[in-house]
User: Fold this.
Amino acid sequence: MSDTNTPVGGEDHPSGYWTFHSPINIDEVATALLLADIAYDALSQAATLRPGASEGREETPEETDFESQSTVVYAQDWTEDNRPNMPVPGQWVFEPERDWNEAWRRGIEPVRIGHVLIVPPWLDAQTSSQSGDIRFIIDPGQAFGTGHHETTTHCIQALVDTDLNGKRVADIGTGTGILAMVAAALGATEVMAVDIDSTAVRIARDIIADHQPRLFPNTRMMCAQGSADSIPTPPTFDVVVANMISPVLMEIANDLARLLSPNGQLIMSGISNQRAQEVENAFAQERIKLSITPGVEWALAIGHTMERNDER
Assistant:
């Protein structure tokens, strides 16, 4: 097996990437891979799965070449001889290596959600802001969370629509730290961001440090490796935001509920439209009532602690 993140190549193999295309839903693929003990880290770079033209993480340059109705697993460190037997239906496809970075950059544009503007560094000088804009400069290749994915957009819009002045906010699965920073820029006085990926934590800390003096100098920002179960309570949080795929959200539902203050608000995305009811039922078991708004492929869920009449 070649080194992780190294394309297939050599005398007997042209340089390129093996990909596995499956017609089933991303959540089913992710769950099947986990149950089969096929680790995400063995599959690809930052992105491992996508349904159609998007995925549970940010888009990657390869996506422009694949058909829109499939989940794609990037498997660039496997050869034709050592590809695993996948636990889901699908087909292996070999993609010759190309200059992905340049193709990817050409497809990236600034993202606007309300008065939040997210700009890649190479477009900073040529992108103008409007009065009242909260402007973030983030390299989309660093980690998940730059606004280019529907799930991130859902969460940012929900934060924009929430009064965060003076609030305590927890961001679970922070990625680049974008949701934590948006909350801080919108008036939160204390923000706790966690991610299980140590690389994401390092990246988020750097990005937060770059933006804090300009956008939220008075907010207490904390960024640590871990998940919802790593954060002690009390005190609880006025707003908890989590952008993760459905199986993970349901797995940590108890801890998300524990973090939420009695009158707090839970904001979640990463929920495929097909599994929205399943997620709603799982959180009802934790006394969290969800209001779910379907999107193109991904739903937004807003949750609150149930009142007595909600439990009847």
User: Anything to note?
Assistant: The first helix runs from residue 26 to 35.
